[in-house]
Amino acid sequence: MVATLQRWSTLTASDLMSQTVVLLPREMSLCAAARLLAQAHVSGAPVVDDNGCCIGVLSNTDFLHYAEREGRRHGPCHTEAMHAWQIVDEDDSRDERVSDCMTRDPVTVPPHTSIQRLARMMIDAHIHRLIVVDKDDHPIGIVSSTDILAAVAQEVPA
């Protein structure tokens, strides 16, 4: 989150967003994506097409849903993970791609979206991050629920 002295209720996505965005190409393997997310210490990232447009989001929730689906198909899932959310199958022979597991139709916002609207969108969609995009749907930042809480907490006296 960008540090600011603005009153929290006037903040917008561009004030709150993390500008360092991990982007996942849709053709990246799930194993490589899990490693990249773990190395970046993030729990989710936008998925982009060949033109850099946001076409989805891959999050720890998507990995959990994937593991659940695979467990039903192949019996009990024996996994090895660097982090609890990072589910990487020991036998990576299936070679699934990010596009096989991602959440399609990501919730995106323009940079001028108000903090109140950001919070409402997260609550309504039951998600923890919004992708901030430019006019061409290229990701330029991410606003997480933690970013919103941090902005409110800065306003509240200790």
Q: Looking at the structure, what is the overall shape?
A: globular
CATH class: Alpha Beta
At the fourth CATH level, what is the homologous superfamily? CBS-domain
In the CATH hierarchy, the third-tier topology is known as CBS-domain
Instruction: Count up the helices.
Output: 6
Task: Give the structural class.
Answer: alpha/beta
**Annotation, overall tally of beta strands:** 9
What is the helical fraction, as a range of percent?
Answer: 25-40%
Strand order of the largest sheet: 1-2-3-6
Which range does the strand content fall in? 15-25%
CATH architecture tag: Roll
- pLDDT < 50 stretches: 89-93
Mean pLDDT: 85
Task: Outline the secondary-structure elements.
Blueprint: H1 13-16, E1 24-25, H2 30-40, E2 44-48, E3 54-59, H3 60-74, E4 79-80, E5 88-89, H4 98-101, E6 103-104, E7 108-109, H5 115-125, E8 129-133, E9 139-144, H6 145-155
Parallel strand pairs: 1-2, 7-8
Antiparallel strand pairs: 2-3, 3-6, 4-5, 8-9
Commentary on this structure:
This protein has helices spanning 13-16, 30-40, 60-74, 98-101, 115-125, 145-155, and strands spanning 24-25, 44-48, 54-59, 79-80, 88-89, 103-104, 108-109, 129-133, 139-144. The longest helix has 15 residues, at 60-74. The strands form three sheets. It has a four-stranded mixed β-sheet with strand order 1-2-3-6. The protein has a three-stranded mixed β-sheet with strand order 7-8-9. Strands 4-5 form a two-stranded antiparallel ribbon. Strand 2 (44-48) and strand 3 form a beta hairpin. Mean pLDDT is 85; it is low at 89-93. The chain contains six helices and nine strands; from the N terminus they run H-E-H-E-E-H-E-E-H-E-E-H-E-E-H.
